[in-house]
Each structure stands twice: as structure tokens, then as C-alpha cells.
């Protein structure tokens, strides 16, 4: 993003990019306490550990720590950039970081030179040199063992190096292995980054906007919406916000091109807005259905919210299988339009993307097929059965959480699932008025737990129950949304 567009919004830098200045990052109380612990630990050396899921802020925490350690006088701080390297390349990078010539094939001499360099540094500055290792789960066992032996002296009674390891849950699993237990027992300081609450995400985003120079760049409602739909993940939040900023700048660029070229800018295939559509940042027509052929559109058709309906598409695929097989291309239109009930009236329209949680990844981007009824002109999106309307957590994980299961996926999204249950409880009176006794007799004062079990017993699982609630009663577990209501019929 060029500086002219940033200046247009009064921004000193893009607050949603990866290369945000370290000084602009928010040091939360856990990160601040961890940095203070390390500042005390550099006088004695030893291991420290930072863990968390992808996108939880581990690398940002290391950047904050590196900036603070850089302010310590005469302290040598190195960053290992290739943790996956073999032992020979590991020694080459250590020699480069600490400014000593090493021969990887003579490890005895290389370790001797390195240790002498570190001991001289300790004598001169009292502090132990610091080595930061991000993505430490990729390191070889031999490199871990070499680091442990290099950093200890005097029969393991003295540490001559401070090592900060950062990695995801795989690093914790590896440290439980027999070969790496000596390192796990030497970890003195720990920072565990959990899934963030919407309030924490909002504080982080507000801090970044203020540091970038425009705290009012996002409206309060948009700020809240972004944080609620980021699934507690900082990286996902920044990607969503960056997509909005980039698309807005693209629109401004297009308008400027039209003014410059007499109204023709942005109309061609090479325009900025067209390229943004190809990247999936807005919904456009992949091709023009028969009911719209012959009509002229400059750069595609934008559908208003009132023209959209949603249906549940039954599938036994998991989110990973759906994305890997590009199953959205195989989705067939419903036999009848859910709005006008006409048979064989739906034609292919477009795709839009949304995020969904998965077992093998934190969140997954999937594409959803959309069709258009040539009679009532209402578009119908076919949401796969493993997804819930307007909820990023997948349906099986929500069901497991509602049933009290303690799976890793439920633990990861526990705060969101608890919020979903509260939403279900508040929507229950309206839901009961809409469904009545369709799923069996209902007691005079039913609880959310009893109705949940009754619905599961009648429908089999949460996905089938969601489909029945939407298709028969135009509602769902957590609310009645406009995309599930029928529209007034229009003339064809």
C-alpha cells in the first residue's frame, strides 16, 4: 500500500500489516510480565519458553522482547532465522550472529570459540548473551542437545547463554519426549498465549490504530463486528481488517482513475477493483445467468442484503475435505427456490468466502456457492452443513461443547461456545413460539438443556436440526435472521 493512500487516511503505517513497528505493538500484562522476567534472567542465563496457537501473537511477543533487550546497554541479542537447519548450518549461523569465524566440521573448536566469546561478553557486561528462536518446533533433536551443552558450564552449575524458545503446541509435545526432557526441566520462564476474547482483540486493534495515527479509522460498530468474527485469533483479525482497508483504497484508486481518464478508469479487466474481485474481496458474478443476459453492468452486480437468502446444504465432508476437494464447485442448486417455491428455477450466480474453524488448522477459508432464482430474483447461498450461520466455530465443535465434551477443539473455542450457549438460551422463548410441538411435547417451562436434548433426539445431530429449523421454521439456534425469511414475490 503506497504512502499516498496511507496519508489519505492519516496513517503513519498500515496498522494491519505484518511489518508494524515493534514500538506500536500492544504489550499485554502477560507479555509485559514475561519481558520483565527475561530482563532479570539475562543476569543468570537459562531457557525460557513462549507457546500458543498459530496467530496468537508469539512472534509479536518476541519482537516486543527483542526491542526491550535492545535497549539494555552492551547486551548481545541474536535471532536464529533457520531453526530447521542441520547441525553444520546451525554452527554457521551462530558464528554469523556473534561475529566469530567457525568451522562447522570442527565442532570442538567451534564450541570452544563460541563459549570463549560468550564468557568474554559476560565479563564485559555482566549479562548473558541472548538467543531468540522462533518456530522452535522445527528444530532437530541434535540441535536442541547441542544448544543445551553449549549454554552450560562448570558441570552444569552455570549458564552462559539466555535462550528464548517460541513455538506452537507441537513444541510442547516434543519437550515431553525422553530426548528433550533435559531441556524441559531447565525452562525457567514461561509465557502461554491463549485464545483472545473479543474485548482483548478490540484493545489490541484500538492500540494499533492509535499508534498509526488515526484512532477513528474504524467505526465502533465495525470494530466490534471484526473482533467478534475473528475467532479469538489476532492474525485472522488483522487479515480481515487489512482486506477492508485494501479494498477501500482500491475503490479510491478506481475513482481517481475515472476522474483522470474521463470516466473510463476501472472499467477494464486490469482495473484495481477487478483485481480485488478476483481475489475474492467482494462478491461478483462469475458469469451472467440467462435472466440477466443482455443487461449492461459496468463492473459486475452488487447484491443488496434484502436480496439474499440462505439454505443449508447437506454434506458429510469435514471443513478440511470440503476445502481440499474444492467441493463448492460441485454443489448443485436446490430443486425448488426457497423463496418462490418454483421448481428448477435456480441458476449459478457466484461464490463468496467465509471462515470456519477446523481440527487440523486454526481457521480455514472456504467458498460458498450462490445461486439466483430467475423468477423472484432472490439469490440463495448454500451453506455446508458443518457451518452455522454467522458463527465461525464449526457445527460438530459447537455440538461437542454443548454436550460438555472436553476435546482440544472445544477447549480452544470455549469462550465463543459459551457465548453461543447464552445466545441460545436468550433465543429459546422465541424459538419455542415458532416451532411449537413440532419436535415433540414441550413442558410448560422448558430449559435450554432439555430442549437441546429433545431436538437432538428428534433430528439426530445439530447439523440436521439446523437444516430443519431454517427450512421449515425460518429460524436457527441463535436467532431469526433476515436471510432465512421469504421475500415478497416480484414480477419476473
Give the helices and strands, then pairings.
Blueprint: H1 3-8, H2 29-41, E1 46-52, H3 58-70, E2 77-80, H4 87-98, H5 107-125, E3 130-133, H6 141-150, E4 152-153, E5 158-159, E6 162-167, H7 169-175, H8 181-184, E7 187-193, H9 198-212, H10 220-228, H11 234-260, H12 272-278, E8 308-313, H13 319-324, E9 346-357, E10 363-373, E11 379-384, H14 395-402, H15 408-412, H16 414-435, H17 448-459, H18 462-473
Short note summarizing the structure:
The chain is of the alpha/beta class and 492 residues long.
Q: What is the terminal separation in angstroms?
A: 44 Å
Low-confidence stretches: 255-306
- Quick one: how many beta strands? 11
Strand content: 5-15%
If you had to describe this structure to a student in words, what would you say it looks like?
With 492 residues, the chain is α/β, with parallel strands linked by helices. The chain folds into 3 domains: 3-12 and 197-278, no CATH class; 42-193, P-loop containing nucleotide triphosphate hydrolases (Rossmann fold); 290-484, no CATH class. It has helices at residues 3-8, 29-41, 58-70, 87-98, 107-125, 141-150, 169-175, 181-184, 198-212, 220-228, 234-260, 272-278, 319-324, 395-402, 408-412, 414-435, 448-459, 462-473, and strands spanning 46-52, 77-80, 130-133, 152-153, 158-159, 162-167, 187-193, 308-313, 346-357, 363-373, 379-384. The protein has a 5-stranded parallel sheet with strand order 2-3-6-1-7, with helices on both faces. Helix 17 packs across helix 18 (462-473). Mean pLDDT is 84; it is low at 255-306.
